[in-house]
Amino acid sequence: MKDLIKKGLSLGLGLAVVSKEQIEKLVDELVKKGEVSTAESKDLINELLEKGEAEHKQLNARIHDQLEKVLKDLNIPNKADLERLEKRIQELENKQ
In 11-37, where does DSSP find H-type helix? Predict the structure, then answer.
């Protein structure tokens, strides 16, 4: 049952959007049903929280990459481009 929960939560956004309270509630239900021991519950909660954090980081990285791609495709300047232009403007103003 633990493996089924881990796999189920890992699908889609899964653990990336599940809160600590939701995970604890889910694991408490498993303890009540006798599917997970009290000793195992803490380890399971920690494992699920760690996986959730990892998925959250991966999701953020994918979103960031996609946003950069979209901005590049739309030919929108990035922060480095703007800083380079500001520096160039400052240099030109200093020459006058």
Answer: 20-33
Question: In 3-state terms, the chain is what percent helix, strand and coil (to 5)?
Answer: 80, 0, 20
Q: Which position has the token pair 């160039």?
A: 88
7 pLDDT above the threshold of 70: no
* Token digits of residue 75: 């030919």
pLDDT in tens, 14-36: 555 667 888 888 888 888 888 88
The Cα 34–Cα 40 span in angstroms is 11
Quote the DSSP letter at residue 15. G
Distance in angstroms (rounded) separating the CA atoms of residues 51 and 47:
6
The two three-digit tokens of residue 67, written as one number:
């946003």
Give the dihedral sign, CA 9/13/19/22: negative
Specify the pTM.
0.58
